[in-house]
Amino acid sequence: MSEKWTIGDAPDTAGRVAVVTGANSGLGFWTAKGLVFRGAAVVMACRDTPKAQEVARTILAELPDADLHVLRLDLADLSSVREFAEAFRQRFDRLDLLINNAGVMACPRRETADGFELQFGVNHLGHFALTGLLFPEIASRPDSRVVTVTSGAHNVGNIRFDDLHSRRRYDRWAAYAQSKLANLLFTFELQRRVQQEGLGVLSVAAHPGYAATNLQRSGPLMERPPGWGGAMEMLVSFANRTLAQSPEMGSLPQLYAALAEDVRGGDVIGPAGFMEMSGYPCKVGSSLRSRDEELAKRLWAVSSELTGVRFPFSGERS
Ligand SMILES: NC(=O)c1ccc[n+]([C@@H]2O[C@H](COP(=O)([O-])OP(=O)(O)OC[C@H]3O[C@@H](n4cnc5c(N)ncnc54)[C@H](OP(=O)(O)O)[C@@H]3O)[C@@H](O)[C@H]2O)c1
Fold first, then answer.
1. How far is the CA of 27 from the centre of ligand 1 (A)?
2. CB contact burial 244-267 (16+ within 10 A = b; e otherwise)
3. Which member of 118, 133, 207, 303 lies 3.0 to 4.6 Å from 85 by CB, making a disulfide possible if both were Cys?
4. Measured from the CB, is residue 32 less than 6 Å from ligand 1?
């Protein structure tokens, strides 16, 4: 592993097809750009297609040969996830790289179209459903990978099975941490299941440390009391300018997870710097709770029940 790995060190990906969720902003944008730069055909899976098309044009202005597509995906609506999978299948017969990147953080309590708490619904359940629906296309490829983006916040996360959707009590940061722990439990359980099936798919997690993106503004600043909102806005701007790394650097762990040759199933890739906040990508650890196999199995069963999505593994087909 190169100590200062960048997209220039990645192998050529010509002929490979990738889907990046949330590719119109922040880390997703740089991930999509990195993948087309290395030659992959990339589907930008975004909820606001005019916005995504505008962003795609900026990539095409720099990389005119980029094989870039925009397809609508709203992870806060399972019918949209199903429509996306159908639309993808009509255009492509395979999927080599699925980057489960989109996310929301610390927003006021909202529900998805299916009545799930928004952060759990978008960050975890939407991606669980998407991966399951696209799994036949993923499993048909040699060396395909599913990369799921988690966060250092998983360290303080807990899966509250007695109130998964925070109906009784909502804490916006606890809900974010729960969703990011769920991302890791899903990554590891998927890896165990593909291994049991004897498939070559790799399930890998990545986290960016702290990168200045729209994430710190969109959720955390919503619906703050007058006065507080302005103060928090200043604090966020200051922290993003002084402490955060660029979104381009922040995207490297997920690009590494998707492309680097020494990646193994179940790896977690994060930045190598102080407290994994910034730096070049390397293999990192994750919390004991994220490695709890019983917890992961239970979350898988509940996620399958809530979304109605069964992966095509023996024992899971409905
Ligand atoms: N930035 C960091 O420091 C940091 C740290 C740890 C983990 N992460 C993780 O990194 C990932 C990317 O976040 P980011 O920092 O790049 O933030 P960002 O700039 O806010 O990008 C988030 C992306 O997710 C999309 N999204 C939100 N809700 C969606 C939905 N319902 N359906 C489809 N797409 C949806 C957004 O679309 P719109 O533009 O339409 O809203 C946007 O494209 C997230 O999973 C986040 O948890 C980031």
1. 7
2. bbebbbbbbbbbbbbbbeebebbb
3. 133
4. no
Using pLDDT thresholds of 50, 70 and 90, give the confidence band for residue 1.
Answer: low
Residue 4, in any domain of the structure: no
Residue 156 has pLDDT above 70, yes or no: yes
Tens of pLDDT, residues 3-14:
899 999 999 999
Q: Rounded to 10 degrees, what is the CA torsion of 45, 46, 51, 57?
A: -10
| Residue 151 confidence (pLDDT) | 98
Average the pLDDT over 130-154 and give the result: 97
Q: Which two tokens stand for residue 89?
A: 């299948």
pTM of the complete model: 0.97
Say if ligand 1 is within 6 A of residue 24 CB. Answer: yes
CA of 52 to the centre of ligand 1 (A): 13
Ligand 1, atom 44, lies closest to the CA of 103
Residue 176 among the catalytic residues: yes
Task: Give yes or no for residue 112 CB within 6 A of ligand 1.
Answer: no
Tell me which of 160 and 142 has the higher pLDDT: 160
Q: Vertex 126, ends 123 and 131: CA angle to 5°?
A: 110
CATH of the domain at 99: 3.40.50.720
The residue among 222 and 34 whose pLDDT is bigger is 34
